[in-house]
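Archive transcription. Copying these from loose printouts into the bound notebook so they stop getting lost. Printout 1 of 2:
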Amino acid sequence: MGIADISAVSSLLSRFRKELWMGIFDRFKSNRQMQDKTKDMSDMAERKANDRTGNKYESQVDDAQQKIEGPLGMDRDRPEQP
């Protein structure tokens, strides 16, 4: 097996991994029940972080929550989609 073969296999695995994750995200985005449960868990984590820091870093915690939820299609600044 030469370097070209290893490179081709690596490229193929990378593309497969990306397609797999995109498929998981697409299924997640279409599952309203799972999104609601994830929002509840995210809110709970936000409350705990704010409680432990005495709300000192509230805006940073909120920014982090939005950055995590955004790629999952859970952007709270956008209106709910049916």
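Printout 2 of 2:
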Amino acid sequence: MAKYNKVSRINEPYIEEQNVSHRRQVAKKKRLVRRLFLFALVAITITVFITIYHINQRITHKEMVEQYDQKTEQLVQLQTEEKQLIEEINLLNDEEYLLQLAKTNYFFTEEGEIVFKLPEDNASY
């Protein structure tokens, strides 16, 4: 069975004014909660985007550091190779070195010289 409200409402201006004031306060609180929720949503979104950007920047920085290290290593190797090539060029410009190289590798002899080939130290047996 349904219960009926047996209390009647008083329609006085003071009561109406209080009801309107209460509705305004409830609406104000509702708007405040909505604004705070919107602000929190915007703050969280911005924080997420900044975090993602920061992580991407760290990854990019790490890759660039690795690439820099590789290029530095490559530079050192190329500089070493350049020094060796310059030294070889200087040796090849030396006539005595060329004669010694020709005698050792190509059995070049001057008049009156005899070439003897000696067995290598590493025996294959």
